[in-house]
Amino acid sequence: MAQEYHYLWKWDLTSTPEALWPLVSDTNRFNRDTGLPSMQLLGVNNRVKRVKFKIPIVNVEWDEEPFEWTYPHRFGILRRYRTGPLLEMRVDCRLERLEPSGTRIEYEVWVKPRNILGDIAIPFGIGIFSAKKFADAFKMYDRIASRPEPVLFIATGRKLSTPGHTRFKLLNDRLKEQGADTATLSHLYDFVHRADDLSIQRMRPYALADGWGTSRRTVLETFLKGTRAGMLDMYWDLLCPECRGVAEDRRSLADLHGRSHCNTCQIDFDVNFDHNVEVIFRPNPAVREVDAGIEFCVGSPQRQPHIVFSLVVPPHEQLPLSTVLLEGRYRLSASSLDGSQMLTAFKDGPDHMDFRADKLGWSREILKIGLSPHIRLINDTDFTQTFQMERVTWSDQAATAADVTTLQVFRDLFSSEVLRAGEEISVSSITLMFTDLRNSTRLYREVGDASAFGRVREHFEILEKAVAAEGGSIVKTMGDAVMAAFRKPVSGLSAIWNVQKELSARGAPPLTIKVGIHHGPCIVVNMNDRLDYFGSTVNIAARLPNFSHGGEAVFSEAIRYDPEVIEFLERNAVPNSVSRFQGEIRGYDTPMDLWRARM
Ligand SMILES: [Zn+2]
Asked: Ligand 1 center to residue 224 CA distance, Å?
């Protein structure tokens, strides 16, 4: 039988394992940086991926087991080749913490050749060529990881062609004239000009804003303006709730369906505007060509950065590990067991923990765990178990479809971006505000049609401006009434407070406005070629202005007890001007607890 080749390389680096992990375990980037050709996923069967190199003439195809890893210390992979000069390759990469600081990387490879070609290729290709490339890549990652600023992109030379450069500058000047944020535009130029192809495949406005130290909304709005101008392209990524990978990548809202499918996990899932539709951007090809589909590794740990460890434990065996957690919620599961174990990680939590997979299943209580725990995974079942621990919270750096579609800038610039007729997509929380003018008939009678109409139109302008300033948007107007949507309750309240202030300052007779605000789940639909909201949250919100006597906001309990609203009312409401009452709402059997606040 053919000989097995074994290599072990060690490098001492200056950065910590935590800082190196996002780069070192990003095998997609690593394979690219070390000169491997791009590859193509052919299919997934029972979590094993069939992959091939995208190179002409030579057909190298293999089956790839899922990666195993433990943040921030170790990852490994096994490939069984079906064609080509190799039979099997196993990789184990370890990041050991050095005292007082630094990391020792140990990279170990076992390779079995299939034939004489493999026997020739391995010592040269891996033993000499890869060893040099690996050393260079790890040293580059060490330099990047040791910088104090967050890693937003990796630069590999200038990326804009001369025509691309000219086009960017032209659009940049036009956007500046239109009042787009200049600081964001200059960051954007730097990014588009220098970021390598992998960094620019998915430009995430909130993550970039955090890194640039600017406002998330400003960056998102600038990107929307840039898209309208032809500098960027916007995509709606549907994220799988299991693996959180991109299940679909859509150019338009009209291509979205209420149900989607993840190929990797082989599951169908419900699409939800504020959970799993993320808006991302890429340069428009006229500015810079980006090959968004190019892949150098199909299963890297960095594709699932929320998973702390993913480890296989054979029946009746156990596995020790140590990891690093952030404060917050985690979930542990084992592949052949139902349910999961919930955990809360905090500073003084226990340092040692056993997790046992057996017939008893998981405990219902939320277990406490420390931030640098030593864990033992014990498999007391007759089946192989893949243990996974994942951080429960979704990245709050995702600009969701709910965020984008409630922005007035989006409605103004992309009025034709709507769902397909008949498609319904749920959004689990949205704040809806309905306003109406009080006694507008009397106003028309008292000051005359022309003058009254002027005042009413002015009130629409004030409303529109105040709503947009709080990150909301006007969904529609109906006579003197307006429906607006916001991401957060406090934004609605703050907007209407400013409207009232403006209206009172505009002279006699003052227009008085009746307002109702409610918060809850909805469905988003296309109604008369615009995005609209439906459901009982909308029905309730629409009735609330009826309870207002004018000059006051009426809102539900869901609004009243929102922490930001509590704080807002403490700061802005006149003492003793917030009171509870009960209101009958048509279609509901029992009266509802409601609140009114004088503005
Ligand atoms: Zn999935």
From this structure: 28
